[in-house]
Write a structure and sequence with these properties.
about 270 residues; mainly beta; Immunoglobulin-like; eight-stranded mixed sheet; 3 helices; about 10% helix; disordered N terminus
């Protein structure tokens, strides 16, 4: 199925619910580029529309619930995350088998920000590699979580943000493709990491204005992926929510799809 055909299918499947799509409170009421402003709607309409979108998606698709109260970024799994579907990681290259260092991510949002909670299991907490101490350093050389976010859903090498966090909370953030990333991008992140008995956790909040611009327009569908690099004594494990099928994480065509209840611009129907 071609991309155009798939988008048309999504539109037809969701047409009965299209009028019910919800508007996030961040919306300023103006039409955004690449889509029309969505009118407020009942949650049941979102259920129908997301189910249609998910069934037609060729990549893993997850719904990002809109929560009334923001989680506190303290490394504790707040009740707000209970609404989020756990996103379990598989081997990045698509290989079968269960990773020894299992990873699960949960994503929710308020009207103003995205919240990500990652649980990174490990056979031995004392063996976690955490050598990088400088912001925008080579965090990928440590045991780390990586976020690839494309709020435009264009899936282009030039249109995604890349955020890395190691187990001691050191971050690296940049825009653009792997070969030419712009590290001058400095989003206002709030990050907390914590070591547990058999895992480490990472919690992060990112204001929508850092990802979508200050206009208040938030697309309904984003291309995104979540990755984990674990350096184990038994061998390295490179895992992701949406496997790229190769050893490279920078493959936007294979990113997953996030459906945001807080989205206020319809960008998936052409």
């Amino acid at each position: 199925m071609t991309c155009s055909t798939r988008l048309l299918t999504i539109t037809l499947l969701a047409s009965a619910a299209a009028a019910l799509l919800v508007a996030g409170a961040a919306c300023n009421g103006n039409q955004g580029p690449g889509g029309k402003v969505i009118e407020p709607a009942a949650p049941s309409g979102l259920d129908v529309a997301f189910a249609a979108f998910q069934s037609a998606s060729s990549v893993p698709a997850a719904r990002v619930p809109l929560v009334a109260e923001a989680p506190v970024v303290d490394g504790q799994l707040d009740a707000a995350y209970a609404k989020a579907e756990p996103l379990n990681f598989r081997f990045l290259n698509g290989a079968d088998g269960k990773p020894k260092a299992a990873t699960t991510v949960r994503v929710v949002s308020t009207a103003d920000a995205l919240f990500v909670f990652a649980t990174c299991e490990t056979p031995a907490v004392g063996d976690i590699v955490a050598d990088v101490r400088d912001h925008d350093g080579s965090v990928w050389r440590d045991d780390c979580v990586e976020l690839f976010i494309d709020p435009s859903n264009k899936r282009s090498l030039d249109d995604y943000m890349h955020i890395q966090v190691n187990s001691i909370g050191v971050t690296a953030d940049a825009k653009g493709p792997k070969a030419n990333q712009d590290a001058s991008w400095e989003p206002a992140l709030s990050v907390k990491t914590k070591a547990l008995d058999n895992a480490w956790v990472m919690e992060m909040s990112i204001p929508f204005k850092e990802l979508c611009g200050p206009e208040g327009r938030v697309n309904r569908v984003w291309a995104a992926n979540f990755n984990r690099m674990a350096y184990l004594l038994t061998g390295d494990e490179d895992t992701a929510w949406s496997p790229t099928g190769v050893t490279d994480s920078h493959v936007p065509a294979r990113f997953g799809a996030l459906w945001l209840d807080a989205g206020n611009v319809e960008n998936y129907a052409k």
